[in-house]
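Board notes (copied after class):
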Amino acid sequence: MSNSIIVKKRIKDFNKKIIVSGDKSISIRWLLFASLANGVSQAQNLLMSEDVLATIKAINKLGIKTSLKNNKYNVYGKGINGYKLKKNLTINAQNSGTLGRLILGLLINTPHPIKLIGDNSLSKRDFKRISDPLSKFGSKFKLKNKKNLPLILKGSSNLKPIKYLENKGSAQIKSSIIFGGMRADGITYIKAKKSRTHTELLCKYLNLPIKVKSKKNYDFIEVKKVKNIKTLNYKIPSDISSSAFFIVLTALSKNSSLLIKNVNINPSRVGIITILKKMGVKIVFKNKKIYKGEWNADIFVKSSKKLKSINCPTKLNSGAIDEFLVIFLVAAKAKGTSYFKDLAELNQKESPRLKWGARILNSIGIKTITTNNSIKIFGNPDLKINKKIIIKDYLKDHRVFMTSVIAALSFEGKSVWNIHNKDSIQTSFPNFLKIIEDLKK
């Protein structure tokens, strides 16, 4: 069976309502918090993707039982110190940077060395950004090439609180330090550049001893040692990062509209909405509500006849870091030149995404100027693609695959797209292609 797809035709106009899979960031964090709780936590709409399944396997290896009953996922937590930290333990984070980086903060008190491994893509990503702050608590790390997986963590039973400046805007670094601070005696202080806030909101809802003061560019976080975590029943909302592909598909279509139900619109995640609105895309939030500290809403979007270029404000970067590849597609169709800068963090993802963004645009005839952290896109509202395009060898980055599919369905012309590694969507969005087929009907 072929692991690539062929796309020959632009999608026809549609007016539909869809439900997108559960939020990946919240699904992984819910599992980690539930594994530390005293008792049984239950989730509905847990995302059953490879990243989340890797998280389930990881907590199972740590002695935490889980089960799926009547479409509800149960985690049987054993308390903040309930992990079974056995000798010769290996945790496989597979492709998940969120799992790999966050769980290290929860394991820094291990009495026995623990080995963390991942797939080929994860093994190329930077873990020094996690080992540096966590080692300040008193744990020790040995990394391949002093930066990569596999790594070996040697914990400490005498963890000391730290003060740390997180200036990359990485929620993974911030969350890992928060988890580390939950195990250390005293108060851990973090000055963190703005990034997604799911970990802090879960801490607040669970009444954990964590304080957050939000300033213009940074959050100031205080973390005290956690002694008890209550169980957490949760209905996981839909993922805005997954929704982004269909928002852009609708925006680039001629006469279409789409309603995406019950999507998480955490203010630290809606950079794409702000950016696309500035570019002329018609997007409205409906039925807004707060659920356990998180904002959720239905997202309504209509196709846009005139798209404008943007000089993207860097303050929006962290809130759109996973969506820039599809944002670049909108810039390709916009009138004028768009400029995105300070995006080095894009290259810390599953693939060097800034390079891949430029590569996809260049393949369809859009001129770009790129540096290590910026891209200038020369838009063409009259773009037509009349050639064969092959997308492959991108480290199975799920967002490169899905962006390529959206591009193939959005632009006019007589193009034929051959997009390899369709199984990459299992990482975050297994039913992506099914929803595409539903929109075609």
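Comment from the instructor: The longest strand covers residues 282-291. The first helix runs from residue 24 to 36.
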